[in-house]
Design goal:
Length: 361
């Protein structure tokens, strides 16, 4: 078996690189596709649910897929600096891949609205962090403007190489299952990822050499937003998005038209979940499957479960939910959800430990 060196090397025939391109990689991709064993039983429906655990990428989120590609191309084109606005995960990924490439990273983040783990990462990687007293959408607008005045390459998902890298997640799923799922559920912020998955499924479906006579060839795409940050439900951009799932606290999605196109072409839909529903799904996944994702990621499962329960997703379906980020990204939200499960504190003695165990059995 050859050493796995990242998704560009693995899927180079399907990505915009040449034999001489210097690949900027941290071994991203090739993430686990885990079948849920307990959750389907809890909902009492005959469905097969897999989660694509993107939290196991090098910086703990799916952003690494897009960033390896975007930074590889930025370096190939001679760029010395990259810039992004971010709700946290993009900044961590940009910072790490910039280090790997030996170039500079500038990140604009909304002050006080970044989960702790993401801030810790971005600080450690040594990016130039610019905090603004405004939300992601404001930061994104500023990044677009400043990039026309300064020699910096934007690595948000408006950079088309980001979506090229991210489409490989769909390739991995089809390669592993041998077919495309019936339904694919994702959390939606800027809607870059749902667009990228659809691109990946579509490219495989149109390539008969790789994907022969498999049904279905492409899934129905289901995009889920947080109720307080749901422009796709409103049918228009919104100005003051709010949600505990700070990763998707986005009111002006950058891939608006592309995502509506995905919805139409796949016969899919958008829907929204309350913060309570999102956190309940996050906890369910941790406590019944042993899988810890960040709040935004749990929107995919929360949405899928609701649509399974109502029958919108019928019994007999194969469903993939993308878990976009690792639960360790946001320790504060995790701990605050477990106030009813305080650790027991006892004397450091054998008797006391024994008693604690027997009391809990
Ligand atoms: C965990 O980091 O936009 O719909 O600046 O971090 O492709 O935007 C993060 C987005 C879902 C939404 N889940 O993906 C950023 C940023 C997690 C995320 C999304 C994000 P898109």
């Amino acid at each position: 078996m050859t050493h796995y060196t990242g998704l560009i090397a693995h899927y180079q025939d399907r990505l915009p690189v040449s034999a001489t391109t210097r690949l900027i990689s941290l071994g991203e991709g090739n993430t686990p596709l885990i079948q849920l064993h307990h959750v389907p039983r809890l909902v009492g429906k005959d469905v097969t649910i897999y989660v694509k655990y993107e939290g196991l990428n090098p910086t703990g989120s799916f952003k690494d897929r897009g960033m390896t590609m975007a930074v590889t191309k930025a370096v190939e084109e001679g760029s010395q600096a990259i810039i992004c606005a971010s709700t946290g995960n993009t900044s961590a990924a940009a910072a790490a891949y910039a280090v790997r490439a030996g170039i500079k990273a500038f990140v604009l983040i909304p002050e006080g609205k970044i989960a702790l783990g993401k801030l810790a990462q971005t600080l450690m990687y040594g990016a130039q962090i610019i905090q603004i007293n405004g939300n992601f959408d404001k930061g994104m607008a500023l990044v677009k403007e400043v990039a026309t005045h300064a020699p910096v390459t934007i690595v948000n998902s408006i950079n088309p190489f980001r979506l090229e890298g991210q489409k490989t997640a769909a390739f991995e799923i089809v390669d592993e299952l041998g077919f495309a799922p019936d339904y694919h559920c994702l959390p939606v912020g800027n809607a870059g990822n749902i667009t990228a998955y659809w691109k990946g499924y579509s490219e495989y479906a149109s390539d008969s050499a790789t994907h022969k006579a498999v049904t279905p060839t492409r899934p129905v795409m289901c995009g889920y937003q947080a109720a307080g940050a749901a422009p796709f439900m409103a049918g228009k951009m919104i100005d003051n998005p709010e949600t505990v799932a700070t990763a998707i606290r986005i009111g002006h999605p950058q891939s608006w038209d592309l995502a509506w196109n995905v919805q139409r072409e796949s016969n899919g839909w958008f829907d929204s979940l309350t913060d309570t529903e999102i956190l309940a799904a996050q906890k369910l996944l941790s406590q019944f499957e042993g899988i810890f994702c960040e709040p935004a990621s749990a929107a995919s499962l929360a949405g899928a479960l609701r649509d399974i329960q109502t029958g919108k997703i019928p019994e007999g379906s194969n469903i993939v939910c993308t878990l976009t980020g690792n639960g360790l990204k946001d320790p504060d939200t995790a701990i605050s959800q477990c106030q009813d499960t305080h650790p027991v504190t006892i004397d450091a003695s054998l008797d006391a430990v024994k008693k604690a165990i027997l009391d809990a059995m």
